[in-house]
Design brief:
The chain has 273 residues and is mainly β. It has one domain: PK beta-barrel domain-like (M1 Pyruvate Kinase, Domain 3), CATH 2.40.33.20. The chain has three helices and 21 strands. The strands form five sheets. A seven-stranded mixed barrel has the order 1-15-14-19-17-16-21. Strand 16 and strand 17 form a beta hairpin. It is globular and about 55 Å long. Pfam families: MOSC, MOSC_N. This is MOSC domain-containing protein.
């Protein structure tokens, strides 16, 4: 089996908006630094997602000099920027799937900007530093915590898995359809399904649950256009128990820096059937 190396690192500071590609990232107890630390919520406190609001794909996020900036991919004149630590101090109960958590409102100006863009009442919240949203106990090992991500601190996909999918598609898709944190090269397609645990640097990761994919994968992250692919093709060969699986959700032990080029050192493999 050939060696495996980290080829891409991605964070998505505001849940369901455009991501950032990094060469190096700090791993914290709830995932990569800044990953899904902010989230848009509706008037009822429920998270707002590309699954229903395709236009969110057109908003690119960047972080520089202690500020977070959101820019429209097609119209850079449409943008807003705020300090990473900016909040009104107002705590708001929020809902992410079946989880209840807490968010700190960022600012009324930011709320107004997003409300105007989406043409619906939304607010932007930041996860408090002391918030402890737990990973699903059925898959946790030691009361691990998670940000505003769907359920797990990190998601990993192999480049070979995407290449295998694109070999079946008329129009290839980019990896950003699947919004991974970690991408690696080497091995056969879906080798990540066989991981039990692996190291990146000094951090031990456990692959605890395959990632079930949804309509978000059918949204072109460059145009915001929605189609049927790649979900339709994936369903033909990656359906297990009525769920379409692509990638592995991870939990981890330890903190530290991880970098593109780091070797994945697999320590345990799932038993073969």
């Amino acid at each position: 089996m050939n060696e495996l190396y980290l080829s891409e690192l991605h964070i998505y500071p505001i849940k369901s908006l455009g991501g950032m590609s990094l060469q190096q990232a700090q791993l914290t107890d709830r995932g990569l630094k800044y990953d899904r630390r902010w989230m848009l919520i509706d008037a009822g406190g429920t998270f707002v997602t590309q699954r229903k609001h395709f236009e969110l794909a057109m908003l690119q996020v960047s972080i520089n000099d202690g500020r977070l900036t959101v820019t429209h991919k097609k119209d850079p004149a449409v943008h807003i920027s705020f300090s990473l630590d900016e909040t009104t101090g107002i705590s708001i109960p929020v809902n992410i799937w079946d989880d209840q958590s807490t968010g700190l409102e960022v600012s009324t100006l930011v709320n107004e900007w997003f409300t105007d863009f989406m043409q619906m009442d939304v607010r932007l919240v930041q996860m408090p530093a002391d918030e402890r949203r737990l990973v699903d106990p059925r898959y946790a090992e030691d009361n691990e915590i998670v940000s505003f991500a769907d359920g797990y601190p990190c998601l990993i996909i192999s480049q070979a898995s995407l290449d295998g999918l694109n070999g079946k598609l008329t129009d290839p898709v980019r990896m950003d359809r699947f919004r991974p944190n970690l991408v690696f090269t080497g091995g056969e397609p879906h080798i990540e399904d066989k991981f039990t645990s692996f190291y990146l640097g000094d951090t031990l990761f456990s692959a605890v649950k395959p990632c079930a994919r949804c309509v978000l994968t059918t949204i072109d992250q460059q145009t915001g256009a929605k189609g049927q692919e790649p979900l339709k093709t994936l369903a033909g060969y990656r359906t297990v128990g009525k769920k379409v699986l692509f990638g592995q959700n991870l939990i981890h032990k330890g903190k530290g820096l991880i970098s593109v080029g780091d070797q994945l050192r697999v320590t345990d493999w799932k038993p073969t059937a």
